[in-house]
Amino acid sequence: MDVQRDPAHEPGTGLDRRAELSEFLRTRRARLKPEDVGLPDFGRHRRVPGLRREELAQLAGVSVAYYTRLEQGNGQNVSAEVLDSIARALRLTDAEHSHLTHLAKPKQHKKKPTARAQQVRVALRQLLDSIDGVPAYIVGRRSDILAWNRMSAAVFGDWAELPPKERNWARLVFLNPAYRELFVDWDQKQSDMVSFLRMDAGCHPDDPRLSALVGELSLKSEEFRRLWARHDVKEKSHGVKRLRHPLVGDLTLSFETFRMVDDAEQTLITYHAEPGSPSAEALRLLASWGTDATRAGRTAPQA
After folding, report:
1. How far apart are CA 197 and CA 256, in angstroms?
2. pTM
3. E strand or H helix that includes residue 242
4. According to a count of CB atoms within 10 Å of the terminal CB, is the N or C end of the chain lower?
5. For the residues of 28-75, what is the DSSP string, one character each?
6. 3-state class of 144 per DSSP?
7. Which of 142, 176, 140 minimizes the C-alpha distance to 156?
8. Phi and psi angles of residue 91, each rounded to the nearest 5 degrees, phi first
9. How much is the average pLDDT of 233-238?
10. Could you give the 3-state DSSP secondary structure of residue 221?
């Protein structure tokens, strides 16, 4: 299939913040039905999906012209109060509200060398190594996998065997077919991955490496293109992940997310099983194999 290259996704450029703001507002408005917000639905006379601009403006308490300018990507001088009103009218989640704020009123970041790789503190690496029996790893910007412990290698595959560029969750999910066998809820995993990447893009639309990653995934994965166009956003927090491990079978693991206080762009993620469960026994089995567990983990999905 021929895919037209998007100039905004070319390496060395950032994402178009105005276009991102415009599309995000449009897709959020399109998902709302009049009856969702107590408005009459005139059925066949409605020519657009979801709410009309004038309906959304009325709900938010702003003029149609003002909202139209905002949806066209002009967030200059918009107040936090107006954004709050629009977020309430659109029924945005906390993550979506934060994303809207980042797009409309971007923070002024000090320029950082984009080529410099993120570094994990030595103490954090030591902490990972000391966590016994619990898969744990640290992710950074763009879903890059920065550090991990032996149990993560046993469960998810030994990322040390991959080139540094390939140690990235988005790449693994959309460009490595083997990972489809590991995650039971594959569709949800793909959707979540894109939502996390969208959140990062809202915070750092001028990141050329992120733009290049999005461009590559868009060119190589039809599924990524479809999900990216939805403009869904989500913060990773906690939940349950079901895996189908090639050696120990089905695993049901709870995950927790801990953002580093001194570096909000690094996140520690841990997985644990319910005590006494078959999954807990499976993790103990992997841990008991010692160095063989890591070697066994290499037979799990990897490039």
Report:
1. 18
2. 0.83
3. strand 238-245
4. N
5. HHHT--GGGGT----GGG--SSS--HHHHHHHHTS-HHHHHHHHTT--
6. strand
7. 176
8. 55, 45
9. 92
10. coil
